[in-house]
Structure formats: structure tokens, C-alpha cells
Design goal:
Length: 243
């Protein structure tokens, strides 16, 4: 035992004496990592620059930031739904028995409903519409298609019918290249990902937003929301006048 301890101490002593002593360089040039004639290579993350927003008025800017808050609220749920569905699908592929697959799907479906239902009830119609579109963005399938896969087509039909009562369609798709609202959603997400105010998750759809933004030159169209609020004000006036 004593021989083993002596050997270890001797090894440690040899290791310590072999170390190069830490000392300050005598010459300032020794601090310079890259010297004249050297080639410096730096790996940078891909970063796309998009045009600065062009608002027609301060009122338009307020509408945009109002809309941005709706996207920020809806996005985490779409991101979470995508993660849950990816997990569900990967596990289903490993289950060979049809009976076990059905049992696992029912359990996962109940879990998803329990996780999302209470939060979704608190959403406004605009937030619900954005969420439905974002589910298509994140999963590559519409909310209707996802429900149809988890449950029967009949259930998906009734889910869509109930959503229509609130003027929402679970069959809504996401097309930022052709639909203004979808373009605005993607604009909000792209900037939030770059600013790291939202955690980025790749879309499962195919489009090139920087190209779309360059073509649009930063213009922001919020006319549909102005019209929406105008209609809401008129309805409120009618209700108050009847009272």
C-alpha cells in the first residue's frame, strides 16, 4: 500500500513539474492572436436581413403591434402541439399491435385535450384563428387533418362544425406567400426568432420568407383589422341604442 501511495505522489510531482508556468508575455504582440499575414476564419450562424417596417401611419403601427401580441400568445401552443404530435407519431411507429396503437392514441388524445383545452378557451377569435394557421405551419397538416388522424373522420367533421360557429375553420391552411394575414404572422415570427423573443421551430411547409419580405419592401397591411374593429364598434353601438 505504501509503495502504491509513493508511486502516485511521484507521478503527481512529475506531472506538476512538467507543466508550463503561467506568466504574462513580455511583448504586447504576444497578446495578438491574428498577426499580419494570417488568415482568420469565423463560423457564423446564417442570418437573413429583411426590410424595416414601412407603416402608413402611427395608427397602422398600433394595429400591427396589437396583432404581434396575438401571434406571440398563440405560437407556443402550436410549437408544443407539433412536439407532442411528433412524439406521438414516432411512438406509434414502434407499436405493432393495432389494439395497443388504438389504446395509446386514445390516451395521447385525452392528454392533448387536457393540456390544451383550458388554455384555448381563454383565447380570442383572432388568437384561435392564428393558432389554427400555426398548427398547419408547425405540423405540415391542418388542425382538421391532425384531429382526423387521432380520432375518426366523423369527430373531425363535428370539431370543424363547432369551430365554424365562431367563424373559424380547422381546415385553414398557412400561405404567407399569398394570404396577407399569414404573411404578417410569418413577419412577426421571423423577427421574434432573430431577436430571440420566441424560441424558433422550423416550419414543415416550404416557403422563403426573406424573399417575400424583400418583394414586399417592408410594407405592412392592417386594413382587415381596421375593418374588423370598425364592425365591432358598430355592433356595440346598435346594442347600446337598443337598451
Amino acid at each position: 500500500m505504501k509503495k502504491l501511495i509513493c508511486s502516485i505522489l511521484l507521478l503527481l510531482a512529475t506531472f506538476v513539474n512538467a507543466q508550463k508556468k503561467d506568466s504574462l508575455p513580455l511583448n504586447i504582440e504576444d497578446y495578438i492572436v491574428v498577426k499580419k499575414g494570417d488568415t482568420l476564419t469565423i463560423d457564423l450562424d446564417e442570418f437573413s436581413i429583411i426590410p424595416k417596417h414601412q407603416f402608413s401611419s402611427s395608427k397602422d403601427a398600433r394595429y400591427y403591434y396589437w396583432f404581434r401580441s396575438k401571434v406571440h400568445k398563440a405560437y407556443p401552443y402550436a410549437k408544443l402541439a407539433s412536439q407532442r404530435l411528433d412524439t406521438l407519431n414516432s411512438r406509434l411507429q414502434r407499436i405493432k399491435s393495432k389494439r395497443k396503437r388504438r389504446k395509446y392514441t386514445r390516451r395521447a388524445q385525452k392528454y392533448l385535450e387536457g393540456e390544451f383545452t383550458d388554455q384555448l378557451k381563454k383565447m380570442t377569435r383572432t388568437e384561435g384563428r392564428i393558432l389554427i394557421k400555426l398548427i398547419h405551419r408547425q405540423t405540415g397538416k391542418t388542425a382538421y387533418q391532425n384531429i382526423r388522424k387521432l380520432r375518426s373522420g366523423w369527430k373531425a367533421f363535428w370539431y370543424n362544425t363547432s369551430a365554424n360557429l365562431f367563424k373559424l375553420s380547422l381546415k385553414s391552411e398557412y400561405h404567407p406567400e399569398s394570404i396577407n394575414e399569414d404573411y404578417l404572422i410569418e413577419d412577426v415570427l421571423f423577427r421574434a426568432f432573430q431577436n430571440e423573443t420566441l424560441e424558433a421551430q422550423r416550419t414543415k411547409l416550404s416557403f422563403d420568407f426573406p424573399k417575400l419580405a424583400a418583394k414586399n419592401k417592408g410594407k405592412v397591411d392592417v386594413e382587415e383589422y381596421k375593418l374588423m374593429f370598425s364592425k365591432m364598434k358598430k355592433k356595440r353601438k346598435k346594442k347600446s341604442s337598443k337598451k
